[in-house]
Amino acid sequence: MARLKRTSAVLEAARKRLSGLKGISPPANLGANLTDTIYTAKIDSVAARLDAYNQKLAELDQDQTLGGSRNCLDGRDPCEWPRNTENAEITEIAIGCDTYVG
Question: Per-domain residue ranges for the chain?
């Protein structure tokens, strides 16, 4: 099952706020530290970090699912691995006891 992408209500509110600020004519003077260019850059920075986070989730989902529906982390029991069974048989022969717990 794919992980839910993360969203940000704060980011959406900031985008709406920026749209409103850009609609003011003449442009509002909010001081040198808060121009629409600086506000846009801050919004873009947060959006880029959120997109990167969601991309990592998608990559994790892709890495976790191998061969279609088989999940390499949850769907494979180590006792089913051929090498594990071979090691148990070799140990049983070498020390005379059954180490296979399957």
Answer: 7-64, 70-102
